[in-house]
Amino acid sequence: xxxxxxxxxxxxxxxxxxxxxxxxxxxxxxxxxxxxxxxxxxxxxxxxxxxxxxxxxxxxxxxxxxxxxxxxxxxxxxxxxxxxxxxxxxxxxxxxxxxxxxxxxxxxxxxxxxxxxxxxxxxxxxxxxxxxxxxxxxxxxxxxxxxxxxx
Length: 151
Hints:
Number of domains: 1
Number of helices: 5
Distance between the termini: 24 Å
Oligomer: single chain
Number of strands: 0
Protein name: Mitochondrial fission process protein 1
Radius of gyration: 18 Å
Pfam families: MTP18
Family: Belongs to the MTFP1 family.
Keywords: Membrane, Transmembrane, Transmembrane helix
InterPro entries: Mitochondrial_18_kDa_protein
């Protein structure tokens, strides 16, 4: 019999969505101050650092060798930064920007309505981008960092 796989609370539960706080901020960028967007990034990075710390601590308890702990910390930090902050933030930013630009073709849509429509489009796209970004980031990490450090 194989051992049951431990559930990763940072990647397999609702906590995963804390990493997408900056996407909510990006969705609202056109309507709120930059400070609010920056706070959303702070939440996403706090989540990223929490997962990194958790993975590092578990490796420290499991193996104890500093090199292994650093490799695990690097893996979690790079994966989370890409999958939770950088890639989805860029994707949502572009979705909202291009949606708003497209709506400028329709002069009857007021700037405020255009902003709210862009927010709605951005927010509604988040559930569709989560899993593809997670999977592609895992593929990327498997073929770069994890191969290089032999994780």
